[in-house]
Structure formats: C-alpha cells, structure tokens
Predict the structure.
Amino acid sequence: MMQCIFLLSDSGEVMLEKQLTGHRVDRSICAWFWEQSIAQGDSFKFLCRVADVLSDYLGGLNEDLIKDNFVIVYELLDEMIDNGFPLTTEPNILREMIAPPNIVSKMLSVVTGTSSNVSNTLPVATASCVPWRKMDPKNTSNEVYVDLVEEMDAIISRDGTLVKCEIYGEVQVNSHLSGLPDLTLSFANASILNDVRFHPCVRLRPWESQQILSFVPPDGQFKLMSYRVKKLKNIPIYVKPQLSSDSGMCRISVLVGIKNDPRKPIDSITVEFQLPPCVLSANLTPNHGTVNILASKVLMFFDHTCSWSIGRLPKDKAPSLSGTLVLAAGLERLPVFPTFQVGFRVMGIALSGLQMDKLDFKNLPSRPYKGFRGLTRAGEYQVRS
Amino acid sequence: MFTQFGATAESLSKASTMVFRIGTDAHLYDDPDDVNIAPLLDSKFDSEKCEALKRLLALIAQGFDVSNFFPQVVKNVASQSIEVKKLVYLYLLHYAEKRPNEALLSINYFQKDLGDTNPLVRAWALRTMAGIRLHVIAPLVLVAVSKCARDPSVYVRKCAANALPKVHDLRLEENTAAIEELVGFLLNDNSPGVIGAAAAAFASVCPTNLSLIGRNYRRLCETLPDVEEWGQIVLIGILLRYAIARHGLVKESIMLSSRDLENIASENGASDTYQKGNEDSNAYFGLKESNADLTNGVCKSEVVDIVSRSYLEGPDKYLSKHRCADVLSSELEGLHFTSAKDNEDIKILLLCTSPLLWSHNSAVVLAAAGVHWIMAPKEDIQKIVKPLLFLMRSSNSSKYVVLCNIQVFSKAVPSLFAPHFEDFFMSPSDSYQVKALKLEILSTIATESSISSIFQEFQDYVKDPDRKFAADTVAAIGLCAQQFPKVANTCLEGLLALASHESTYGDNAATDGEAIVLLQAIYSIKAIIGKDPSSNEKVIVHLIRSLESIRVPAARGMIIWMVGEYSDIGNVIPKVLPVVLKYLARCFTVEEVETKLQILNACGKVLLHSKEEELWAYRKVLSYMLDLARCDLNYDIRDRARFIKELLSCYIGSSDTEEGKAQQESRDVSRVLAGRIFGGQIKAPSSEQFSARFYLPGSLSHVVLHAAPGYEPLPRPCSLNFEDPSINSNIVEGAKRPGDGATQSESYTDDPDSVSGSLNEESTSDYSYADSIGGSDGTGGSNVSSSLSEVDVHKEPLIHLSEVGYPNANPDGGSHVDNQYSGSNNLGELISTRSLESWLDENPNSGHNLSEPSSIRKSSARISIGHIHGRVEPKICALLDPANGNGLSVDYAFSSELSSLSPLLVCLQVSFKNCSTEPMMNLQLVEDNKRQDSSDHASAMTESSSHGDVPSLVPMEEIANLGPSETINIMLQVRFRHHLLPLKLVLWCNGKTYPVKLRPDIGYFVRPLPMDIGVFSAKEAQLPGMFEYTRRCIFTDHIGELKKGDKPGTNDQFLVICECLAVKVLSNANFFLVSVDMPVSANLDDASGLRLRFSGELLSNSVPCLVTLVLEGTCFEPLNILVKVNCEETVFGLNLLNRIVNLLAEPARG
C-alpha cells in the first residue's frame, strides 16, 4: 500500500504530487530520498509499471513531457491507484478511459478550444475475462508479427576464458487482428528454454502439459514471453584487451574480431570501458571507428567513460585501439582494471538457437499474414582485463 | 549572408518548440495564475471551467495551497461534463479533509451520481465520496458501498471493494462489523477483478478474520490465476495465512525439517557462527554442518529452525525470547502438523500458486515462491529456484529485493542454489548493495566442486575499481577458505600476495580504499590462521616481515596481535621474537594509539609465555615500553601501561628483595589473573548466533530488516478452529443477509435503551413551546407487547430521582419524574432496517429482528427538567469591536423568536452600545450591495429559489441617537443564504461605514417543533439509514457543575448532567426538548444510557429535524456522547451534526 506519489524533475524538484490515502505525506520527504537516492520496496514493481504506462502515453518520460500533459498524468494516476492500491493498470483499458495525447487532439484543442481526453463510457473490457484486449477491435490490416529479440549476456575473464554465457530473450508479438482470435505458437526446441515468464494472456495449462503457447493476444505490440537459455558455448565476437603499466604510464591495446561467425552481419559494435579514477589523461587512437571519452556524474562521482564505436567489422583488417593512460602522481602501476562492455547487434538470427515451429489461428475469418524475425543484441557482455 | 535572418535564428527555434508544444497543457503548468481563476470557475462553459480546474491542479502539483477556491469548485460537482467532474473530484480529494464543511455540500450530488446509468459516473462518485474521509459521512458511504457492492458493473463493484479500506481508515468502531461483512460479500463475487480488490480490502480491514476466507477458500484458490496481478500478490498472502491458521505447517516442508535433524542440531550446537559483522575473530562457518548436508543433502537445520520460528512469531518477539531463555526445545513441538500429501486444501494452494511462478510480475513470483518455500514438501521446493533466479534479470532494484530473499533461502538450504552459482557472478551494472548480497550468497552456497570457479571469479573482483567491494571480496575469500580447508593454502597465498601488493603503494598512494582492502586481507589471513595456527607458521613470519611496509595502523595492530598470540608456536617465531620486540620498542613512539595498545598487549603475552633464558631480555624491553607509555599523551595508553605493570609486576619486578608472605600471596593471585587475562583461550563471543532477522519472504520488512508498519507474522498454526459451531452459524447467517450488517451497526448504538414506546405524559414546563403538546400520547401498538415485560422490570430497584416539582413556574423547582418504567422495544430499529433494505432493493427480511432477545430491553425512567429555561442564555457574538468602531460596540445573539414576515428569516438580538464619550448619530445596518457571489451560488444548493424575493435583511429602523454608555437592543431579521458562509453587512454610524459580518449559526435555522416522545420515535423511524447521521464527542462541562454543586441538598447527579446538556444545546440551537430518559438499572455513578431528545423543523421548508444524545460513561468523568441527527436534508443534517458536536465538545463559557 502506498501513501503518495511524487514525480520529481531531473534536479530533484517536485513536479507533481498525488496523495493517495488519508495519511498525508509532506513533500519535503522527497528531498531526503533525493539525497539518499534509494528506491526500494514492495511497491517498486508498481512504480515501474506507472512509469511504463506514463512513458507509453507520453512517448517518453521527462520534465517537459510531464509539464505538457500534467492533467493527463493526474487523471492516469487517479485511475491507476485507488487508496494506495492499484486499480486499473492494463494499458489497453486505460487507453480507452483516458485518451493519450496525439496530434489530432492537440490540433482540435487549438482550433476549437474544447477537447476532452476523458472518455464518457466505461471500457467494456473492464468486465471481460480478457481485460488486456479491447472488445472487438477492427483492423484493416490482418497480420501478426512474431519477433525473437534476444540479449546475450557473457562474462569473459581476465585470461580469456568464457565464464558464463547465456541469452535472455523475449518473444515480442505485434498483432493486428480483428475480433477475438485464439493463437497457438509452438517451438521446435522448447526444451532448451531454461526459465520462462509469460504475459497474463498466456494460458498456463497447455504450457505445463505440452509446452505450447496458447493465447488471445492484446492488440498491437506486446511481450508475449521472456525466456532464458543458459550455458551457451559460442560467442560471436572476441575482445582482447591488454594493459601494461610502467613508471606512471599504462599502455593499452584492445583487439576486436569475429570468434564464431553467426553467418549474418554483425553491426553496431561498440566497446566501452570506464577509466579508473586514478587516470589523469588518456590518449587513445583506433585504426577503425571513433573513440569518445565522456564524463558523466553519477551520484557525486565523476565517471570517465571511454567508448569506441566500430560499427561493422572491416573486411581487410582487425580493428584495434591503442594508446597510453597517464596515471596519477605517485602511482607506478594501474591498481585496478576496467571491465570492457561490448555491444553488438546481429539481425535475422536468434543466437540461442530457439526455433519457432508454427503459429496456428482459431476464431479468425481469414488467414492473416504472418511474419517471423530474429534479432540478437549484446546484453551484459563484459570482458575483464 | 542574411544577417537579418540569422538574428532571428534563436527566436525561430524558440518558436518552433512553441509550435511543437502547442495544444498541450504546458502553459497552464508554467503560469497557472496568469488569469483570474475565480470567474472561470463560475463560467457557463465547460471548457472554461476545465481550464480553471486545470490551473488549480497545476498549482496543487507545484505545492501551492489553493483550498480557498473550495466553495467555487465544489459547486461544479454538479456539472454534466465528465471531464469537469473528474477534475473536480481530483481537487476535492486533495482538499476535502481541510475543508470538511464545504465538502459536505457535494454529498447530495454524489448520492445523485450513485444512481447514474453510467457505471463510470457511479464508480467515480463512490470513489470520491469514500475518499473525502469525513467522519460524518461514514454511514452514508457505508450504505453507498453496500449498494455498489451489488452493482451490475464489475468496475463499480471493484471500486466498492476499494472503498472499504477508506471507510475503515476512519476508525469508527461501530462500522467495523458492517465493513467486514461487506468484505466477505465481495470475496464471494464471481468476477476475478472484484476478488482481487476484495482481497486487498480484507488485508487492510480485517487480516485476522480468517473465517471469512474459510467460506470461499477453494474458490479463491481456483480463481487465483485469473485475478489481476496486484490482487494476486495480496490474495496469495491471505490464502497462505489461512492455510496455516487452519491446518498448520506441513510436516514434509523445509520449515519443519529441523525436527528430523534434531540430534544433529544439538550435536554441533554453536557451529553456526556466521556473522556479517567482522568483529568475531573466530567466525567459522559450520564445518560439521556441511557434513550434515552431505549425509542429508538438505539444509542447515539451525537456520531453518530460526527462520521458521521468526516467520511464526515475528523476529523481534523471537529474538527477545531467545535472549531470555534457551528455547531450543520449542513450543513448535506442541503445534499440529499436517501433510501436503493428504490435505486437499494445501494441495490446491500449492497447485494454484505454481503456475504463478511464471508470471511476468516479479512481486507475484516472489509471493508464490514464498508459499512454496513455507508450505511445499522439501522435494518440490526446487521449482522456485529458477523463477527466482530469472527475476534477477529485471530492474536493478527488484534484483536487490530478490537477492534479499534468496539470501535467506540459501542460508537455510544452501544446496538449493548451489548448482546455480554462476547466476550470482557480478555484472558491472550491479550496484554496490547488490554486489555485497551476491558475495554473501556465493560464500554461502559454495561447495567443494564449485569453489574453484568461485575463487577464479573472486580473484577478478579483487581488482575491481570499487575498493569497498574488493574488500568485501577479500572477506568472502576468508570465509570460504575457512569453510573449505583444502583451498585454504591457495587462499592464504593469494591474500599474502595481495597484502604485500597493497602495502607496496606506500604511504602516499594508500587511499582509504586501499586501506580497507589491506585491512580486510590481514583480517582474513588472521581468521584462516586462527583455525590452524601451527601449520601456518610461515605465514605469520611473512606477515611480521611485512610490518616494515604496512602502514595502516589497524592492520599493524592485527599483525602485532598475532605476534603476541602465537609467540610460542613453531620454531621460527621464538627465534625472531627478540628482534621483533626490539623493532616494536624502537618505533613505539611514532605508532598510532591502537597499534600502541596492541604492542603493549603483545609484549605482556610474550613475557607470560617466555622461557627463563629470554625472560630477562623481554622484561627489559617491556619495562622500557611501559616507561614510554606512562608518559604518553593518550590516557588510554597510560592506563594500559599502569594496568600491565601492576598485573605483571611479579614478572617485571626484581625477585631478589625480601618480601612478606602477604605479598607473596598477592603475587600468586596476579600471576593467575595475568594468565587468565592474557593467556586464556578466546571463545567466540557469539553466544547468540543470529543477529539476523528473518521476515516473511517478499515482504518489505524483509528488505529493510525491521518490521515495516503493517507487518504481521504468520498466524499461529491451527489457531482457526472450524469445528466451532458458532463460527459456522455466524457465517451462514452473515451470508444469507448481506448488507444487514450495515444497518445493524448503524443502529446498535441505541440498543442499551432503545426507543421507548411507553405511554408517557410529558409534563408541561415553563419552556416556552411546551404548552402546546399537553398530554397527547403517541403510543404505537408496540406498547402492548412491551407492557408484558413490565412485571419483572418493576422488580428492579427504583431510583427515586426527585420530588414532584412545580413545573409551570418555579425557577428552581427541580424536576418532575414520571416513574413510569417501560420496556422499550426495537420498533425503531426494525423499521429502519426494513426501509433501508427496501432502499437497497433487497427483499425485505421481515422476521429476523422480531426475535431479538428480551435482554436488550432495558427499562428507563423519564425525567423532565422544568426550570432550565431560565438558564438558557444564547451565545453572544461580537459584530463590531469598539476598537474598530470608534467606541461603538455591537453584539448580536441569535434569538429563539420566530419572524412574522417570512419563515426564511432568522431573528437576531442586536445590541448597540456606545462605549465612547461622544453621542452617536444615525446608526443603521444595511445590506452590503456588492455581495459575495460565493454566498449567491451556495444559496442555490441550500434553499429553493422560490424564496428569492426575500431580502437578506429586513430593513432596520435607524437609531437616531445613542448617548455615551447607552445601550439599545434591536431585533433584527436576517435571511442567511447559506448555513456556513457569513453575511456581509454595512454598519452606518455618524455617516461612516463599517463592513461587518454576521456569522450564521445553523442551530437557529430551525424552529422548535413540539412533539411528544411517541411522535418523535415515529418520525425517527421514518428517517433511517441515509437520513441518519451519527458522531461521537466528549462532554466535560458537567464535571465542573457537579463539583460546584457539592453542597448538601443538591440535585441528583443525573439531573445536573442532563441540565448541563440541555442548557448547552438550547443555548446554542433553537430546539424543543422532547424528553430526557435515563436507564433505571444503572448504577448510581453510571450515566450510560442517559438519553436526551430534541426536535425542531427547518425554517425554510419545515422539514423535521430530530436530535438524540446518548451518554456513556460515569458521572464524574468526561462523558462520551453519541449525537444522532435524523433529517431528510442531508447537507443540513450533517452540518447540524457537526455544529452540535462542536458545541458539546467545546468547554463551557466562563
């Protein structure tokens, strides 16, 4: 149970306050939290959801957007929470109750001066057993897209061995189907899935018995399922950092190359690492791509992040980054070693090897267009030096 | 090139953002008060109202107090536009508590909206009405909730369930039963959405009333997967509590596994000395325990035992008990167990919660995992592991929460998470807290097979830029090394390398971070050596060698401690000792305090353990150091030096001088003492092994490690006994007539002496209106039945209250008591129940109240108070202070006289007094021409517009001349347009004007309506439910009065109290005193049950208005008074109720 919600701006000012129960909370409490910068608790998951819904509505979540739409924010908060307990959190229903801002309504309000974003009627879906779906939506297009979006988490230790490699994936569905369709999705190799979590629309019994996903989809884009595949052996690219210190200087060289070719182009390759605080200056030059050193302030500490963006791997050479770091006075050697974060993207393939078998429809007048896609990104792909 | 354009580039970009943000509400947020909001609120156009309300909302959002717009906002509640309504509701909810009186104005509109055909309007009205949180309207809200609980719309029913905690929050105990009944009714709903909300209501209203769950347990379990996620979390918790309270713990579960391992547990009693704090020098992590694991493959019985007891009793209670006495033989023995295999209820709970482990909501997964953790058989518990681990892949904060829970699970059953150790490897995005938790879990779940990979990881972590984390890693390495002796050697090597590596940075670069790591490294080495000192002699020597380079005082101190402690171990150490001691003596003066202390201690120990041949050399070193220490700046060191000198005097002092026998004896004593103090075996200081507290998995308390508000441990197993027929019958009855609870609770306060229907002749008094009623009897047919009970009633001892007085004239004529006892009956309640139910469209349940047991009937005596009219003195208020009016003082008091012109006019006695020395001319009060519009619109709500032609002030004749210190009284007739808002007038005097304000008193918006008790009860019965408003207050005036009247021959205490009350009410409101009843059975001191009734009718529309005061408490204490108002006009009734409560509660004047 929550007592109040405050929305704070980037500088820690209270932008919006909503008291939920009779026990009023003074807004000065925010200052304390801002200093402590902690956010933990039971209600946390709900706050995440609020933030999700808000950014969904406003197309992002920042100070200006909240200012632009503070009335909608208030109305939404009021609909979502009642007396500190969540009331309606299903985005589809909320969307019908309180219209999200869009160009049309903005123009309308400019021209006529009158526009209401509050619906006059209660969405029918509040009473339905599939609250996530609007009642009887009409779509001109009759199509459904299923994407496997995977993130690869890997740890490569100092000596170059693969400590851990696993994939966190999501089955994202974008459905534009009319009526109340019933879909069944099955996998060719469901046994490789380690852990799974489902959207509430998935019926759990068929999964328990046959590992089949049977569901009535919400309209539009949604996350049908997330899964994890553990203990993978192959990583697509390698990064070899080398650091050697000598009398107050540290020579650094980083090599990047393909390890196990996924037979699809790898792009958006980046390598990032934080320069330790004891580094005074850095002089780094790549033979391919660009290097940026960014300073960011995270909780009183200045972080200097060095990011090397490579893009696609060139055919003729192996990209490398080399240079020197100047250490703080009195330091002979680098006492700590940064961890290198690697980013990449492989289109058209799910590296976990998960394969969709078939997608069946029931309760649909005509056969829709089906589309399948795979995509793998680097998640927490880290190489220690 | 185009400079004229270039100049505008900036303004262009500004303009483009303006264009982009056009049509949004940003301008409202940025300058909310750039236009006058008040006229917009009164606009006819919804769009303008909307804009005004949005501006107000923006002001609220920015933290400004805009409650002064309340009256204008409230009237917009009548708007037909949904958006205006919504915005008004948002405003109302924010300020209603601050402006209760004005908020009441909206109640009528809510009630109208509750009957709307649009479910959204109904739901909003209910939500707002309940959210206003005013005590006065609690009964109304309750009735509205019980109506909405039967609404055809799921959404409205859900809102009804959500409204229950709000009503409960007001803490009106007379409503509790009704609220719980409604919770039970809503739990019975067939829509999962409603059940979720009802579960939340249950959890906050009556979490212990588990019998409500019992009715629906199976059905609730089965609908669990369909309930929305937030409801699931709450419902899971409730079902778990019910299952435990009903059936007890499961005997195959982890919670009770310590039973099987009882003997093992007692065998290695104190082996679990794992402590987070590092002060425990001998922390060693259950070696034998791991053997138990190997043989049994399950769990740390001791931890499990503590965990399960903490769950059941709450850790604070458990820990305090644990400190007082050893509770190893626990009362758990006495509890009942059940088996998951053959108990259907528990089977179904586990079955229905297991798919929830796949939920995409982390909190649901955690709650479901908690159920399995506590209830599932040991062999099935494995299934919670993967879902829990998967949760860690969500946000950083939920990662922390999940890890907190895993930490406890893994402590109790390390084998559960042991195969998944890789999941706890750090990722660079982890926060420090998360990393620390992961380290702790890793060191808990490490096994022989996984320890090498874990060490590989640890070695990488030591080089992490976060030095605090690196230090924690070093500590974890130490722990693991103690746990697995096989790896201890590699650990030591690594740690030594680390220590020497760290120490090479020297003084200049040794930042705080490095110091922590170094200290922790030495500490871990010390702990590992402590397990087996003799085989680690080389390590000690190595450390001693590095004393030269290690500069951190605490680390030096620790090494020196080891020198003293292990001075007699092995071959090498005794050899190097003299050199070391000399080194220490040399650098003694430049050491830090803590190091100095350690040096002194170490020397003392060395001396104690030394053999004869070295004794002399050591003695010399020590006395040198003691001399240095005696002159130290720090008094701790001087003290220590003196202490050691005294203690070791037998070793230090020369032994060749002759000494007496007594001295010899004291030497022996100090020898023993010194041996004990320096040479004794150090025991682990932890007799209490777990300072850690365990709270239920998934609870907030578990994360913050103290009981958060609202935390409840699990109920006592099997505390819910269903074989008790009374519970069952209650349930059945309750289920049959839902909604009945609401009505009962509203009226049961009357029970002690409910409406007396006896034939009773009201004695006439000099009270000015009483003469009209004579001796009419308003007896209903109910009297016939009540007379039956009179026989035994008469056996009650009579309390003769007073002599027969002369009610007509005598000012102090005492009171007249009709000693007519009457068994009252419950007609009033009966009718009210029925009519309420018909209002609710329920089938009237005719019979059940007739069978009320006769014990409720109580006899009462009727007192009539004759002489109080003389004591009634209306309250005088100041209209104009002489300081502001050039010496003119104007006071007014409301008069009980009635206007002859119009029923809407209220009479006021206004007295003009000239306090100055000059005469005053031409005094007159006239209407303020520019009247406040707020009173204008408010009038629309309170009075019908047909009376619009009545002026606000009947023109008063001018006072031509008012001499010095002369007083003139004038009767003024005024029409207030609103119960609460003041009327603005202008006072003319000597050609000057003074603005004045007449404050209305709602007590004078009525005129006395003479009636007798029969008519009163009949009318009361016609105004039940929605038209009945009750509130409690404390009355203290009588205490002073009773003390005053302590002289002999005074009246009865009851009379004094009644008079006080009656005078107070009649001095402030224009009512007719109908009757004063008192219970006959009462004790002499107990005023409970005294009941005063007043009646009146509204001036404007002659609607009757009844007031009843019921007293509770003893005579000489503050009395608790229940004030009840029955009136058809909701707003008026509630305002009147507030007024009466306020006037009773405020202390007497003078």
